[in-house]
Specification:
alpha/beta; 4-stranded parallel β-sheet; two-stranded antiparallel ribbon; 8 strands; about 25% strand
């Protein structure tokens, strides 16, 4: 089984209420059971929702309480991002999942790069940071 960002399988769970279905990825994984998740929804955020970004670091810093996640209105949504990451990890552990395909560049699922102030910067999203810290291999799409 592989954990996969819900938006990559066609679920309209992105912040703007759309998906980013990745047919090529789905085709390459067609013989593997997929478990779609949206950490932001699991954290209690609505869809659609205001765009968010990490301020003061990346997902590792958020988990260490050195950075925050703020939406574009200035609302602090850090707790929702941490809760969503924790629920995603719980699901992976319950199902024995060791691999995840996550949506790149996002403040939840980005791996290696995330968006900040309209630019790509080095860093991981909150969910990616927690999953990788717990031994789950991340492939960013």
């Amino acid at each position: 089984m592989i954990l996969i960002s819900g938006c990559l399988v066609g679920l309209d769970c992105r912040y703007d209420g759309t998906s980013e279905k990745e047919e090529q990825v789905l085709e390459s994984l067609k013989s593997v059971p997929l478990v779609p998740v949206c950490p932001e929804q699991l954290g209690g955020l609505p869809t659609p929702r205001a765009r968010a970004e990490i301020v003061g670091g990346d997902g590792h810093d958020v988990l260490a309480n050195r950075a925050r996640v703020l939406d574009e209105t200035g609302k602090d949504v850090t707790i929702s991002f941490i809760k969503g990451a924790a629920e995603t990890l719980k699901l992976a552990q319950l199902l024995g999942i060791k691999e995840a395909y996550l949506k790149g560049k996002s403040p939840s699922c980005g791996s290696g790069t995330i968006w900040k102030r309209g630019q790509l910067v080095q860093g991981d999203g909150v969910c990616t940071a927690l999953l990788s810290k717990n031994g789950i291999r991340i492939t960013c799409v």
